[in-house]
Amino acid sequence: xxxxxxxxxxxxxxxxxxxxxxxxxxxxxxxxxxxxxxxxxxxxxxxxxxxxxxxxxxxxxxxxxxxxxxxxxxxxxxx
Amino acid sequence: xxxxxxxxxxxxxxxxxxxxxxxxxxxxxxxxxxxxxxxxxxxxxxxxxxxxxxxxxxxxxxxxxxxxxxxxxxxxxxxxxxxxxxxxxxxxxxxxxxxxxxxxxxxxxxxxxxxxxxxxxxxxxxxxxxxxxxxxxxxxxxxxxxxxxxxxxxxxxxxxxxxxxxxxxxxxxxxxxxxxxxxxxxxxxxxxxxxxxxxxxxxxxxxxxxxxxxxxxxxxxxxxxxxxxxxxxxxxxxxxxxxxxxxxxxxxxxxxxxxxxxxxxxxxxxxxxxxxxxxxxxxxxxxxxxxxxxxxxxxxxxxxxxxxxxxxxxxxxxxxxxxxxxxxxxxxxxxxxxxxxxxxxxxxxxxxxxxxxxxxxxxxxxxxxxxxxxxxxxxxxxxxxxxxxxxxxxxxxxxxxxxxxxxxxxxxxxxxxxxxxxxxxxxxxxxxxxxxxxxxxxxxxxxxxxxxxxxxxxxxxxxxxxxxxxxxxxxxxxxxxxxxxxxxxxxxxxxxxxxxxxxxxxxxxxxxxxxxxxxxxxxxxxxxxxxxxxxxxxxxxxxxxxxxxxxxxxxxxxxxxxxxxxxxxxxxxxxxxxxxxxxxxxxxxxxxxxxxxxxxxxxxx
Lengths: 79, 605
Fold this sequence. Notes:
Shape of chain A: globular
Radius of gyration of chain A: 11 Å
Distance between the termini of chain A: 17 Å
Low-confidence stretches of chain B: 29-35
Structural class of chain B: alpha/beta
Radius of gyration of chain B: 28 Å
Strand content of chain B: 5-15%
Low-confidence stretches of chain A: none
Mean pLDDT of chain A: 86
Number of strands of chain B: 10
Number of strands of chain A: 5
Distance between the termini of chain B: 75 Å
Largest sheet of chain B: 7 strands, mixed
Helix content of chain B: 55-70%
Oligomer: heterodimer
Strand order of the largest sheet of chain B: 2-3-4-1-5-6-7
CATH superfamily of chain A: Ferrous iron transport protein A (FeoA)
Helix content of chain A: 10-25%
CATH class of chain A: Mainly Beta
Structural class of chain A: alpha+beta
Number of helices of chain B: 28
């Protein structure tokens, strides 16, 4: 499943970041730490289709659907 | 002279640290040999050393044209033979986000034989939250000097300055490391040393759940934005009135000292009138920069961008465009400055394209006059609403919709990078704004406006005054060179049913749109039309302005970019006179075509 599917309060491990090496968004996600094995959690899903808020380590990022869908998760874990 | 190249990820506190290192002596300049503006200032403890604040980025792999320029600039600075030390600012609380970039730059610095060190910022937040970080272990893993600092409290800054001055190139473990290993190493270091501080995220998430909640977030946004605009446009009004009164007073005191005639007229109308016209914006720009700085530093501005991103993305704009666009409802000048918070040049340009169409307050007197001429003062819906007010609302709505549509078309035509750019926005931690650097930046911004835009505005003011004054010494505007120009351009406005008088008023209104009313007042022989447009409206009605021509004028003013201050500032801020001139011409042509279409349409009835 993709990062966008993660429900609020849930955590999961990053399996991969898709999009290939030429994808700038994928590259940036990797640069800021969305790498295999990292735990990411969904903090908020603001209404009206706004970008969602995710925590990665001590940092929080807001990603839109197209970007969050690039991050593939492996397993759900309790938050 | 030694150069200190300050680099780091966004929100790492790099600029705050720069302010500490330079004692707020910030100025924007070109780093020798490169073409982008970066902040620079002399090191506080040794003014022979110059600190350069490079734009923040997360990696040496650029994802936008603007990042590419910034990264190229850093590479050029590294390749430069002059002595320089590279200081990477890392956020100690969010160490993981900057480590890849840190190792990439460490490698480049090693290859360029430049000393490299890490300034580990925000240590005060770690200490405040009783979180630990193994500094010695981090130093050993990175293989470079690591100095704990706090830009906020100043702790560790002196030691950092000494380290910067004494740094020398040493053997680096990263000189030959390939990209794949850099990423892996960054991850290993992050896993080992990142403070386990879920506490920090939880605290922030608690505030976010309220400020970004569907209902509470909307309410908070409206309240904060209402206060924001109150501050800019209502609270700064007394300051603006004060500046205007001061300039007028100065003029009233000095002009009588000049012998009557052309020089007195020049000083009164062109110098003091011209100065007053743009200096009046200075307090507003100061207050705007102050409030935006406080919102940005508090962490809220990123949240506001998040809230607005979705609706604005339909029009090729970013969530960050919201504040500049809303500012544009009052005045394009602060709106253009507000767009500085946008990191992507492409997004900024799209916002610049939309701002001139937002219904600014300078258009209000023009609309008020034309509505008085065209719309009877009657009520609708059982006396609840006046037709004149409804039409005014319609004109404002038309302006806002036009701005969004034009931005949408421009972004599609231009294959806008912003349309393709991913939305990845780091939400900085909430904190109390550090007010002193914000005040300093606000003073700088106001000074920048006076120096840069002021000179262009003043020059155009003098030219228009000259054309309106000669050859008859300002006695009769209808016999001036400006009127001759109005006659020349009459064929342009004839298809809209407008004669030379409106042509002259439109030309004069390039100084500021509201000048249109005063100029028409002069031409029609009505004094003080600015204060009370009713007699002028009556005279215009008597002169036989048709509904079709009146409607065409409204549409023309809604679209045309008739404001020398806006054009001058667009040229400065976009660093492209060509962009500003293209926008001016495009909106003139679009305004004329739309006005012509409306004239034809209304003439049918």
